[in-house]
């Protein structure tokens, strides 16, 4: 989501997972063993008075990114993030309220206090943590992250991969579709320059949703699309019974998904880190990831600002 770009990005492979994954193995967002006899009660005691008194945690989310977050048959948010958020709400003993927000507005609206946190496949990256725009200039949108998952970028092509695309370099001379303001937007912007040096122009179609980008791949308007691995894998498996798309090549650019919190809300940030740790220790975290077939992106503990 914008620099702090709304980068969204489940499962990572091999070395791609290693760098960011190590951050979630070695960092420590929630501390060690809970001090009290009842660790859940201890976590709840850390939640700021504002949320405890209201009995609700309001979460900004772009509910349009299956399987990470999307609307189920009943119209309610479902997917990886909504289920993890609901589980965190049970630990913290608050009701979870989702505020559907377009991806590029997630962090600006968080700063505008339209909700307490943003949780929507947001990659924890330096630009967002330091409040930098795409040109490296400071903005007012710096946030902290509570990291809870690792994800990477994948290339989606029509079934059968008629253009033989396997790498980013194979996109040179072709058209690629993507959602604007995402991690993939930044990756392809860099690749445009790489392709230009080879004399084979990479044309980019930037859309306001991932669904529109995939539609361009389906129609042939774009040779490929780029998006988070979980989303790419889900689209390949479910669209037209698995006969429309396939994921090609290896994943790249792994980074943690994080819950974005205003820099000033350190108490809430630390309470969420403890709640994520408790969710992982209690086993519910693994069950939710397994349900959505993204277990390879699992973190072993929460980390505050552990992204690259």
Index terms:
308 residues, D-Maltodextrin-Binding Protein, domain 2, 2 domains, nine-stranded mixed β-sheet, 36% helix, disordered N terminus
Write up what this structure looks like.
The chain is an alpha/beta fold. The chain folds into two domains: 14-150 and 256-304, 3-Layer(aba) Sandwich (D-Maltodextrin-Binding Protein, domain 2), CATH 3.40.190; 153-253, 3-Layer(aba) Sandwich (D-Maltodextrin-Binding Protein, domain 2). It is 36% helix and 24% strand. It has helices at residues 14-26, 39-46, 49-54, 80-92, 106-111, 126-130, 183-198, 210-219, 229-238, 266-282, 284-291, and strands at 56-61, 70-71, 77-78, 95-100, 117-118, 143-158, 175-179, 203-207, 224-228, 245-262, 298-304. The strands form two sheets. Strands 1, 4, 5, 6, 7, 8, 9, 10 and 11 form a nine-stranded mixed β-sheet that branches. A two-stranded antiparallel sheet has the order 2-3. The two termini are 16 Å apart. 48% of the residues are buried.
Radius of gyration: 19 Å
Number of helices: 11
Low-confidence stretches: 1-23, 25-36
Number of strands: 11
* Most strands sheet: 9 strands, mixed
Strand content: 15-25%
What is the N-to-C order of secondary-structure elements (H for helix, E for strand)?
HHHEEEHEHEHEEHEHEHEHHE
Mean pLDDT: 87
Helix content: 25-40%
Return the structural class.
alpha/beta
Overall 3D geometry? globular
CATH architecture of the largest domain: 3-Layer(aba) Sandwich
Number of domains: 2
CATH superfamily of the largest domain: Periplasmic binding protein-like II
For this structure, the CATH topology of the largest domain is D-Maltodextrin-Binding Protein, domain 2
Span between termini: 16 Å
In the CATH hierarchy, what is the class of the largest domain?
Alpha Beta
């Amino acid at each position: 989501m914008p620099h702090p770009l709304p980068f969204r990005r489940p499962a990572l492979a091999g070395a791609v997972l290693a760098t960011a994954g190590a951050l979630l193995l070695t960092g420590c967002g929630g501390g060690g063993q809970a001090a009290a006899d009842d660790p859940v009660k201890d976590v709840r005691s850390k939640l700021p008075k504002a949320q405890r008194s209201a009995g609700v945690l309001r979460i900004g989310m772009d509910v349009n990114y299956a399987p990470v977050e999307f609307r189920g048959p009943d119209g309610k948010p479902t997917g990886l993030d909504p289920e993890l958020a609901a589980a965190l709400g049970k630990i913290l003993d608050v009701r979870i309220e989702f505020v559907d927000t377009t991806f590029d507005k997630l962090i600006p609206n968080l700063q505008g206090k339209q909700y307490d946190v943003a949780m929507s496949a947001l990659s924890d990256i330096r630009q967002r943590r330091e409040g930098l725009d795409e040109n490296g200039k400071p903005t007012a949108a710096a946030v902290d992250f509570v990291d809870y998952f690792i994800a990477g970028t994948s290339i989606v092509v029509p079934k059968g991969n008629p253009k033989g695309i396997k790498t980013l370099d194979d996109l040179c001379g072709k058209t690629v579709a993507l959602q604007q303001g995402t991690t993939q937007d930044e990756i392809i912007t860099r690749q445009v320059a790489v392709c230009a040096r080879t004399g084979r122009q990479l044309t980019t179609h930037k859309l306001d949703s991932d669904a529109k980008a995939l539609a361009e791949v389906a129609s042939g308007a774009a040779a490929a699309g780029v998006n988070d691995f979980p989303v790419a894998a889900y689209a390949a498996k479910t669209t037209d019974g698995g006969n429309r798309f396939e994921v090609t090549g290896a994943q790249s650019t792994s980074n943690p998904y994080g819950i974005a919190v205003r820099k000033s809300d350190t108490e809430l940030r630390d309470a969420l880190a403890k709640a994520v740790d408790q969710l992982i220790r209690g086993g519910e975290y693994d069950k939710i990831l397994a349900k959505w077939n993204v277990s390879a992106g699992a973190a072993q503990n929460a980390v505050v600002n552990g992204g690259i």
